[in-house]
Amino acid sequence: MPFHDHEENHRYAGTTNPKDNKYLHNDTTQNNKQYMSVNPKSETKSQNSESSSFSDLNKKLDREEQLAGLAPEIQAKFDEFEQLAEESKHNKTLWDRVLLDTGFKVTFKNKLHMTYMLAAFASIGGMLSGADQSLISGATVFLQEEFHLTSHEQSLISSLVPIGAIAGSIMLSPLNQFFGRRFSIMISCISYTIGGIICAAAQSVHQLYTGRFFIGIGIGLESSIPAYVSECSPRDIRGNLTSLFQFNIALGEVFGYAIAAMFYDLKGAWRYILGSSLFFSTLLLTGMFFLPESPRYLVVIQKKTGAAYRIWKTLRNMDDLDNKLEFLELVESTRFTEQSDLSSMPSL
Questions:
Q1: Are 241 and 187 in contact (CB under 8 A)?
Q2: How many CB atoms lie within 10 A of CB 147?
Q3: Which long-range contacts (CB under 8 A, 24 or more apart) does 153-160 make?
Q4: What is the DSSP track for 47-91?
Q5: Phi and psi for 302 in degrees, rounded to 5?
Q6: Could you state one GO cellular component term attached to this entry (predicted)?
Q7: What is the pLDDT of residues 78-131, one digit of tens each?
Q8: Which SS3 state, helix, strand or coil, does residue 92 take?
């Protein structure tokens, strides 16, 4: 092979860098132009994706710069919160000792696990409502034979639960204001348990009426559970955890029918069927002794920022700046609301 032919071939294949090989560079450039002329949409998509990624990066950098500038102010705020938290440990009122210190303190290394446990136990309240609907359906078959119920008495036994739920809903607001979310749920468990015991041990129709009314009050009071779970959950999973209450209502209905089928062949089956609801209320009541009060309730209603911050640290990882900002927003929004209310009051 002549030397000049070998040199010419080397120009085409001797390097892999397009910048060093003018022939390869020209061919590649020409091919790219042809591809772009045939596929103009690909060029537009590429430009849009690049601009979007640059925009997201700029937003992230701007946010980090803003947070870096506010870091001393944020740290000063949380130094104040730490001091308030220490003071709240030593300066406790009777309300604090009865409502906040009742129960057992549970902490997890991964704070998200504490939130999951809170949502799982609190949402058991949905099973109380769901199970009662199916349990009374199974027990009615035996109640007619036991007490020789008329159609009026049978309908009254069923309707006294929603009537009691109305009464419980009316009581819910003042109980939530004074006792808090956690203790209101515990009161609902106690009312439901009392009603279940009366129904299981009833010797007359009127005792059944009383028991069913107490069960209804418990169901009405438990409607604060979604608010309690929502106020304690992080923003990114708040919707999922709150919907767990509705899921447990349907699950309770399934459990209720299964329980009624289990006791169907026993003597005095209706007592076991109605008494089985005590399992759910007792499980919820026991779980509430291990759960904290809502931090939002303590800040907004009770104005106990120190106690709220102590609980917040058990529910959030405080090394994450977003969790700090979320608590700071809660406190500052409460103060802003108070100032707005004071400014809107007419001067005397």
A1: no
A2: 17
A3: 153/205, 156/209, 157/205, 157/208, 157/209, 157/212, 158/212, 160/209, 160/212, 160/213, 160/216
A4: HHHHHHHHHHHHHHHHHHHHHHHHHHHHHHHHHHHHHHHHHHHHS
A5: -90, -10
A6: membrane
A7: 888 889 999 888 888 888 888 888 888 888 999 999 999 999 999 999 999 999
A8: coil
Q: Which domains does the chain have, with CATH numbers?
A: 3-34 (no CATH), 111-318 (1.20.1250.20)
Q: What is the DSSP letter of 345?
A: S
* Length, in residues, of the chain: 348
**Interacting residues of 130 by C-beta distance below 8 A, sequence separation 6+:** 248, 249, 250, 251, 252, 253, 254, 255, 256
**DSSP assignment of 227-295, as one string?**
HHHHHHS-GGGHHHHHTHHHHHHHHHHHHHHHHHHHTTTSTTHHHHHHHTHHHHHHHHHHHHTTSPPPH
Examine the pLDDT at 16 and tell me if it is beyond 50.
no
Q: Output the six-digit token pair for 345.
A: 């009051």
Per-residue confidence (pLDDT) for residue 24, from 0 to 100: 38
Rounded CA gap, 126 and 249, in Å?
4
For residue 240, what are its two tokens?
């999922």
Least confident of 6-20, 47-61, 144-158: 6-20
In the block, residue with structure tokens 């002329």 = 37
For 52, 171, 312, 326, the CA distances from 305, given in Å and listed in that order, are 41, 26, 10, 14
3 state DSSP class of 224: helix
> One-letter amino acid identity for 239?
G
Rounded to two decimals, the pTM is: 0.77
Tokens of 46: 């590429």
Rounded to a whole number of angstroms, the CA Rg of the chain reads 32
Cβ-contact 128, 222 below 8 angstroms = yes
CA 105 to chain centre: 20
SS3 labels along 157-195: HHHHHHHHHHHHHHHHHHHHHHHHHHHHHHHHHHHHHHH
DSSP annotation of 141: H
- The token pair that represents 210 in the structure block: 């009383």
Question: Cα separation of 99 and 59, whole Å?
Answer: 44
